Amino acid sequence: MTSRTPVLSFKGVNTHYGAVHILKDVDIDIYAGEMVSLLGGNASGKTTTLKTILGYVKPTSGQVLLDGEDVSDWPTAERVGRGVTMVPENRRLFKRMTVKENLEIGAYLRPGEDLSSDYDRVFELFPRVKERLAQKAGTLSGGEQQMVAMGRALMARPKVLLMDEPSMGLAPVLVAQNFEIIERINKAGTTVFVVEQNANMALSIADRGYVLQTGKIVLDDTAEGLLANPQMRQAYLGEV
Amino acid sequence: MIDLKRVRTFGLIAGGTLSFVAAIGMVESFNERTLINPGITMGLLLILGIAAVFGYIVAAGKPNPLVETARDSRSGGIAGGLTGAIAGVVTSLFVLFVDTFDVSEFFPNMREPLVEAMTFELGVPVGLLVLTAVVTATAAAGGAFHGMSDSFRAGMSRALGWVVAFALFELVVSEILDFADPLVDLIYAPRGGLQPWAAVIIGALAWWLSTRYKGRGEAFTERVKDSEAGSRLRRSVILFGVAAVIILPMIVGGVVNELLITSGLFILMGLGLNIVVGLAGLLDLGYVAFFAVGAYGTAILTSPSSPAFAPGLSWWIALPIVMVLAAIAGLFVGTPVIRMRGDYLAIVTLGFGEIVRILLLSDWLTPIFGGAQGITRIPGIPVPGAGTISGTDPQLFIYFTFMFVLLAAYISYRAQNSRIGRSWAAMREDEDVAEAIGISTVQAKLLAFVTGAVIASFAGALFSAKVGTVFTNSFDVLVSIIILVVVIVGGMGSIRGVVVGALVLIGILGGPKSPGLLAEFSEFKLLIYGALLVYMMLKRPEGLLPSVRRSRELHGEDLTQDAWLDKGGDFTGDSAEEEATT
I want to staple A158 with a disulfide (CB 3.0 to 4.6 A). Which of A85, B291, B328, B364 is the partner? Predict the structure, then answer.
């Protein structure tokens, strides 16, 4: 890419859970408007990467930068205030609140603003959500919950949208739909960082990808490059 | 059809319950209170009540939403009677056991007086037969009652309810009717208890009124709720309520006012704890510490005989200082526990509560807090033109309690329906996601602790001024637990619920240190609290008067979804696409 400042970047990040070394000298740069995938198998450190971006986990060394500013010591809420929002793994809606309340609280950091255009945007992407507004979020189907979770994140008008395993627990048809919507969100100008196990699906819509293996970035290329890379094909696409 | 298995099960449970209330001495001590002259005592009411309730439960059958339970008074009566017979035999065997073997060394209540009380002083063989017959008949009546027509049920329950209320709350009734002294003397016997003819008249009147004005109450509530037509009506209802609150303390006497003040202090603490537990979801078992900060703070600042430092301030000047102290205490407790969740938080706060009490009692801090001697000679609340008002004028002191309850209710109401209230709700459900949305859970938690602490300090400041002395034993862990019970029974997150919970538990059954309106219960109140808590958790976890949010959380989405459909929401549920539910 160019020499612009990345909206989100890791510089030599190391993290530990107790004595266990999770991320090892991870460098990631994500530029405005990009769609980037982070791929990796189980226990490769994908979720820890997201947790480090949001500040649930603090790096033991290295820096997390948002718009070039070092936010390594910032609390989660303040980082979110800088325009980073996550759609968590398994949706994690506020199940006892209504769909409407879930969306409303997504815009928590924009008090007093008129949210009607944001609602319209969410309803345009997910017409079904509008039908379910008064329902308790916990009673929705998995696919609908995924829509509400994405809607909730969009209500914050994020600059960078983090998605943790969006294909998890969804039927194949819905996974494809989901990625289509992620693509639309990205095309509309939101930078998207998708963490996925489903490499084929993720790379089909991404601009670039990183491959994480036991905490190290082992590959870093454009989506086409990764799909063509024999090493990648062997390790993640199941081809011998 | 009679479900014999159910009859057997509930018959044994009823017998066990009757034996239990006898064994703990409840029947005996309740017998000291006559409800209706002569002979109908509170102990008898307890036996009859248990029998009738179990008879009714058996007749009602297992609740099944799909099948309308048959309402047949004959089979209901037989089922109830059989249940009662089993219960009566079980209880008689128990009484016989107590009569034959002497176990009073281990169970101090299981002695001759118990046998006398349970056999209606008729002695063993005859009395046991009478007991069994009475229990059987009452349970049969309870069972038959289930099968009666709705109007009979409504009339009967109102009649019985009012008679029992008049009898139980003799004190309140006679104080309210103080201006009509001869009437009081007519209704009640000189040594307590309703006169039998008065009971009949009250019952008949209640029955007649219930049929005469059937459904009017509901219709009225509907009209009040109706947003347009009800607005003037609503205003007059509120005015009436305010007038009642202002006038009531003047017409009831010192005892009832005293109870209302104690209940008021618990309403205050309940409202404060409700913010911490009900809204923010932080289980605080050491809440009494903030009450203690309020009480001791006021004591030190106002009492001339405070041991170390006695500025002798006026209560009104001390109050804001005490509030600041409580807020600091809230931060002090809140900060270290901010990272703890659920059970861990409960245990740590429990510890904090005890630490405060033990510090107040310690030799080390005795020079400041007076240790076991406490702090005495705390003046009341100075009011221009009316001198100093303390607990010796309960009729005036109650207004201060009202004032602070109103203030606390207002704070709770505003907090609940604001941005911070929503962030508490989100945090209560999923702390991590709440943070990912940008809610600073550290701030939200501290704010909950501090608000709760300040409200508890109101209660503490009032308590000091009312009682005039503070000792550490007013601040033990039981107080924290009872405030929590008030909040749970009333309804977590619900302001009305806390008010009702405190009035019922503290006002009627009795608080941790003081008897309630039914002083007979004071010995057993912890038992009743425990039983009530278990029952509520099983049957009505949202509390007596739940908040809208809580009842929605605890029950299916039926409520909201129905309301949504009623409003014409275009619900186009397409079940074909629900396949992805995994």
Answer: A85
* Matching residue, tokens 């109706």: B226
**CA B60, B65, B67, B71 torsion-angle sign:** positive
pLDDT tens-digit map of A72-86? 999 999 999 999 999
Same domain, yes or no, for A97 and A193? no
- With tokens 């609140």, the residue in question is A97
Phi/psi for B381 (5° steps) reads -95, 115
Which among A157, A186, A205 is the end of a domain? A157
Same domain, A100 and A208: no
| A134 contact residues in B (CB cutoff 8 A) | 560-561, 563-564, 569
Beta-carbon contacts below 8 Å between A and B: 101
CA distance B427 to B282: 10
Closest-approach residue (CA) in chain B for A154: B437
Over residues B362-414, the pLDDT tens digits come to 999 999 998 889 999 999 999 888 888 888 888 899 999 999 999 999 999 99
List the single best residue of A97, A140, A147 to mutate versus B (max B Cβ within 10 A). A97
What are chain B's domains?
A: 1-148 (no CATH), 252-549 (1.10.3470)
Residues A148 and A169 grouped into a single domain:
no
Of B109, B62, B475, the closest CA to residue B291 belongs to: B475
Residues A193 and A152 in one domain: no
Backbone phi, then psi, for B200, in 5-degree steps? -60, -45
| Last residue of one domain, picked from the residues A157, A175, A196 | A157
At CA B25, angle to CA B20 and CA B29, rounded to 5?
Answer: 135
Number of domains in chain A: 2
Dihedral sign of CA atoms B219, B221, B225, B229 in order: positive
Alpha carbon separation from A232 to A48, A84, A95, A215, B55 (Å, rounded): 22, 29, 38, 16, 74
CA distance A238 to A41: 12
Q: Tell which residue, B136, B193, B138, B144, has the closest CA to residue B170.
A: B193
Q: Are residues A50 and A119 in the same domain?
A: no
How far, in Å, CA of B573 to CA of B570, rounded?
9
- CA–CA min distance B579, chain A (Å): 8
Looking from the CA of A49 toward its CB, the CA atoms found within 13 Å total 36
Mention every residue, 6+ apart, whose C-beta is less than 8 A from residue A90: A165, A168, A169
Q: What percent of chain A has pLDDT above 90?
A: 65
Nearest CB to B557; choose among A78, A81, A135 = A135
Q: Indicate if A2 and A23 belong to the same structural domain.
A: yes
The strand pair at A16-17 and A20-21 is best described as antiparallel
Contact B432 A88 (CB under 8 A): yes
Residue A230 shares a structural domain with residue A119:
no
| Mean pLDDT score, B170-187 | 85
The fraction of chain B above a pLDDT of 90, given in percent, is 54
pLDDT digits (tens, 9 = 90+) for A96-124: 899 999 999 999 998 888 889 999 999 99
Residues of the domain holding A147: 92-157
Q: For B24-33, how does the pLDDT look when each residue is reduced to its tens digit (9 = 90+)?
A: 999 999 998 8
Cβ–Cβ under 8 Å, residues B5 and B62: no
Integer Cα distance of B94 and B109 in angstroms: 13
Confidence band, pLDDT 50/70/90 cuts, at residue B298: very high
Is B572 close to A80, i.e. CB distance below 8 A?
Answer: no
Minimum-distance CB partner of A56 among B423, B432, B552: B432
Contact B484, B456 (CB under 8 A): no
Same domain, A125 and A7: no
Nearest to A40 by CA among A240, A229, A219: A219
Q: Which CATH number does the domain housing residue A227 bear?
A: 3.40.50.300
